[in-house]
Amino acid sequence: MRYDEQPFGRPEDIGEPAVVASYAVSGPDYGAILERAAVFAIGQTIGTWVRVPGISENMIRSYQGRVISVLDSGQGADGQCSTFVLRIAFPAANFGNSLAMLMTALVGNDVSTALHARLIDLEFAGGYKPGYRGPRQGIDDLRALTGIRSRPLVLNMIKPCAGFTPEEGAKLFAQAAMGGVDLIKDDELLGSPGYNRVLDRFLSYEAAAADVYEKTGRRPVYLPNITDTPSRMMEHAEALYQAGAKACLVNFIFSGLDALKDLTDQYGDKLFIMGHYAGVGVMNAWNNGIANSVMLGLLPRLAGAHAVMTMAPLPGNPASHYDFRRTVQAQRLPLGKIAPLVTAVGGGITPISQEAYQKELGKNTIIGIGGAIQGHPLGATAGAEAAMAAVKAAAEQIPLEEAARVCKPLAAALELWGRKS
């Protein structure tokens, strides 16, 4: 194959609508990378790893992928390079508005046969205007639901995760609600099993919320988990909306991006829809798969999720922090007419985390606190009070130790998780 012919091209030569995908590629040396990249571009569009009959000039011109650039990390003493960034333009005509077909093209068959590649970014080129509406609700809509304007919103994930009835779950819900949290969601492991149907659970929790409101004047917004088959997700959404629900939760990693898009197309104006990341780790290997900035940032944003649960970075791990920041950028940076989605950060967060997260993410964020509420030594209500005191103090730039002097639950939390007042 001549290297000045198809499937190679220049970025400025992209005249037809296309998605330009960037990959981190590990392993091939300089002598192999261009040939492997070419095989990849052909194999993910019109052909395969060997030449096959029937490919016409029109197929090549209109539907074949093109290698746009190959950047390397520098040649070593042995003449090899271990890391490349490969950019390939995929004609948009091949997948239309199907996210499933887009992902099949970008990381489908040939990722395992021609090239070990990790998808790290997407760009729209050649006048391509994605046929996705994106998020139809944002932080302002969520603030209107909760009445909270000047600080991050606090989300509790009910623990234990599963194995209880709606009535038992309502007691767990009430304990966190009495502590003043803004949002309460199901754990992603609890869908609609026979012992705890999602509509039954919603009705029980709403009764608990009404009781809390009578006692405190505040009630949290509940996000029931409707993850299921695509048709049953629609059924759950309709039943919950008719029952008065304002929001819901969906694990789009395994229910599917197109199922999420269909849901947001139909209910994006009616329900605040939060996406969950459960399972994304199996797609994010160091030398293969899909980067979190794509899987938790760009793709659910295109599909219309209003917020996405995003795993907190590992303490003291620079690579994890870099990955987290890239993901937040993908969720928030301008993307044509597609609105940003709301970052919901969770995973091991305690009251002592608040100052750092608010400094890094700002106030238009959802702070997810699960085990640190239910696992508080004074009980879940005290755990919620500690979380709320910490979030409010951080928002007002009051040292947590100072706030803990007038909040016994916060003082207990700081002592338990490493900071004594």
Structural class of the helix and strand makeup? alpha/beta
> Radius of gyration over alpha carbons?
24 Å
**Share of β-strand residues:** 15-25%
Q: Classify the oligomer.
A: single chain
Q: Give the % helix.
A: 25-40%
Low confidence ranges: none
Q: For the largest beta sheet, what order do the strands appear in spatially?
A: 7-6-5-13-12-11-9-8
Number of strands: 13
Main sheet overview: 8 strands, parallel
Order of helices and strands: EHHEEHEHEHEHEHEHHEEHEHEHEHHHH
Q: Average pLDDT, to the nearest integer?
A: 91
Distance between the first and last residues' Cα: 69 Å
The total count of helices amounts to 16
Global geometry: elongated
Organism: Ruminococcus gauvreauii
Domain Ribulose bisphosphate carboxylase large subunit C-terminal: 138-417
Pfam families: RuBisCO_large, RuBisCO_large_N
Family: Belongs to the RuBisCO large chain family.
